[in-house]
Amino acid sequence: xxxxxxxxxxxxxxxxxxxxxxxxxxxxxxxxxxxxxxxxxxxxxxxxxxxxxxxxxxxxxxxxxxxxxxxxxxxxxxxxxxxxxxxxxxxxxxxxxxxxxxxxxxxxxxxxxxxxxxxxxxxxxxxxxxxxxxxxxxxxxxxxxxxxx
Length: 149
Description:
About 35% of the residues lie in helices and about 25% in strands. By secondary structure, the chain is an alpha+beta fold. The chain starts with 11 loop residues before the first helix and ends in a 5-residue tail after the last helix. The strands form 2 sheets. The chain has a 4-stranded antiparallel β-sheet. Strands 2-7-4-5 form a 4-stranded antiparallel β-sheet, with no helix packed on it.
């Protein structure tokens, strides 16, 4: 197949468009979205690849562009992730080890932000901080509120 790595870089417009489709960044527009796209790296992983390992210090925040992954803690599957889902935000925010592993179940493409890039974006663009707070809040609610049937 085609060579991997830097040869498959996406244009800024394409990265920005992909980010714009992520529910997490739903309230982020224009220049703020482009700022994320500018700092995000496109990374591709084969199936059965451990993107994040439980117990390791996280160095990045990831949004899945296409593909699928599962979240595993202590050998137990907690969730399945797909397009638009994100992970790694807690380690990036608090600097503590990852609470779960994320393992691809199919070839998966992500946009990744290094911890320091993430921090700078949040400081420079309040709308991005707000979007991420809302994303975290939604995730917490789904864990703490009674399940709807």
